[in-house]
Amino acid sequence: MIGRAAAAALLILLAACGGPGFRDTSVPMTSMALFDPARYAGLWYEVARYPVWYQEGCQNSRAIYAQTGPDALSVRNICDREGAEDEISGTAKVVGPGRLRLRLKGVPVAADYWVLWVDQDYRTAVVGTPSGRAAWILNRAPEISPDRLNAARDVLRFNGYDLSRLEVKTPEGGQ
């Protein structure tokens, strides 16, 4: 399982480096100026994502962050795939306001992962890659309220993302 996840993660990182994506890259991308790694730590559920092939078949995707230093987090990405749990772990270093450099075990390159928005109570987050090849809406609970989902979609739109291609999780747990 880890081998498959590591291979997928490598391709995620390479995809983040360039090529066409889900957003208009001529639109400047913003990140959270007042990002707090300590408040970001904990369990996040993926409630929406762009259809990237390396997450095909993933259900119940979640990420667990733990602060390991003032500007560092450990990361565990987990999903249910083909009846089993698929996981990959690594580290994220804060390299700018709301900007993380993600390194996953077994993957030789790092990826830039920007926190575009987090609500005041750190219940909902929007994250994306500067290339626009991927983005996610994360929530502290498996379900998201319509008002927070709309706010998150507005953040994606503001950052040039094509909302028609966003996949929102259904209440049954699928995409």
User: Which residue ranges are poorly predicted, with pLDDT under 50 across at least 5 consecutive positions?
Assistant: 6-19
For the biggest sheet, the summary is:
8 strands, antiparallel, barrel
Calculate the terminal CA-CA distance, rounded to whole Å.
Answer: 21 Å
Give the neighbour order of strands across the main sheet. 1-2-3-4-5-6-7-8
> How many β-strand runs?
9
Q: What is the tally of helical segments?
A: 3
From N to C, what is the helix and strand string?
Answer: HHEEEEEEEEHE
The class by helix and strand makeup works out as alpha+beta
Characterize the quaternary organization of these chains: single chain
Q: Radius of gyration, rounded?
A: 15 Å
**How large a portion of the residues is in β-strands, by DSSP E?**
35-45%
List keywords for this structure.
eight-stranded antiparallel barrel, 9 strands, 175 residues, globular
Describe the structure.
The protein starts with a helix and ends in a 7-residue tail after the last strand. The longest helix is centred in the first third of the chain and has 14 residues. With 175 residues, it is α+β, with helices and mostly antiparallel strands. 18% of the residues lie in helices and 39% in strands.
